[in-house]
Amino acid sequence: MIGREKEKKELEQLYNSGRAELVAVCGRRRVGKTFLINEMFSNKFTFKHTGLSPEEHKKENALRTQLGHFHDSLKEYGLKNSERPESWLEAFSLLRALLSEKDNGTRQVVFIDELPWLDTKRSGFITGFEAFWNGWGSARHNLMVIVCGSSTLWMQNKLINNHGGLYGRITYEIYLTPFNLGEIELFFKDRGIELSQYDIAQSYMILGGIPYYIGYFKRHLSLAQNIDELFFKPHAKLKDEYTRLFRSVFSNPEQIMLIVDALGKRRMGYTRSELAAKIKTSENGKLTDSLNALIAGDFIMKYVPFGMSRNKTHYKLIDPFCIFYLHFVKEQDILNEDFWEENVNSQPVVSWRGIAFENLCFNHIRQIKDALKIGNVASHQSAWVKRDEGKDGTQIDLLIDRKDNIVNMCEIKFYGGDYSVDKGYYRTLMNRKELLSHEVSKKTAIHNTLITTFGLMQNEYSGIFTDVITLDELFE
Description:
The chain has helices at residues 5-15, 33-41, 62-76, 88-102, 125-135, 152-160, 181-190, 197-207, 211-214, 223-232, 241-249, 253-263, 272-278, 285-296, 320-328, 339-343, 347-362, 365-371, 423-437, 471-474, and strands spanning 21-26, 45-50, 108-113, 143-149, 172-175, 270-271, 300-303, 314-317, 379-386, 394-402, 406-413, 445-452, 467-469.
């Protein structure tokens, strides 16, 4: 298993804790939650069950279908002579009976995957689960219950931050994030896939470090050929993933996709009121719920652009897979099966790389701060756009506003070689620094920082940059 060292250590400690454990494992769909638990406890499950996706059953029979499937799992793990339960209270009563029958004093591991899918409308699932854990499971010192869910907001609201009978009952919480660049590099090496860091970075810019997606890469193909296989060839594996992703995780996928589509059209995102106008909806609680669900799932981020007040909070799309899909797949009625190979150097792709690399940097702030040797310094990260009446204004890709009285004004350049600063760009940077100096405290120093692929070509203008960060450091 690549990476996940911290999570593996935590799960091992929980397994050996000698007390009842109710562990919640969260993370977006396809990030590897199920794989992690299966690898850790594959031969130790006393009971295991996976909820059925809402896409796989008729909603009018959802409760009956889920209960029947749960009963099948109980029988698979040894329950005998029982009728199919008619409620979740009965279902969890049968689970208690199974666990009691199999209890020999050793650790019992129960794994319920995609827990939110079991909570169908008016199902009483939470009541049944609450009765199972509070009334029985929490007193069994040899019981370890692990629950997973791709609907992170559901996991937070209904389970982790529950204000009812499950309040404070979760004994440990694990949040699984996508692979970073360094982990993707290890993953490819383990699979015998030889790609340069330049191409691995682009794989992240397209697929976002989701193990399930990069697991489709084939050794004998180039990056461009692999992308065509995944998105553009007939029966491409990920051609329909965008819709499946939202329909399987969110209860209101239509509004969710409208929000994501709108945010995909503007790099710095929109305020809540701007977004509501874009998708023609009201600024109501449903919009708030949708935004919170997308934030919880790491699809979008909420931030205040530098120099703006909190009432100008913006929402920005940060999921690489969604950004790529919206740019190159969604609007194509007929897909050219060799699209990426044929367009890899086209202007639309070059422009997309600039946007996608900016997003990569936002998702690797820890590595950037470590490269600047400020890993322990508190900071706030955002973009900055200054509109001057009658002028074009200016935009800074990334500002790192630090508590040690320094602002890193970052220029982000995805480039095929060493980046070269010419006289015109030098003047642009000087102008941006001057404009920014009027927005920060007089005690604050501004450091021009270049984040690029390979490095900075030395010339008479290169001294404009105080710091240079390359792919080598982003892969740390």
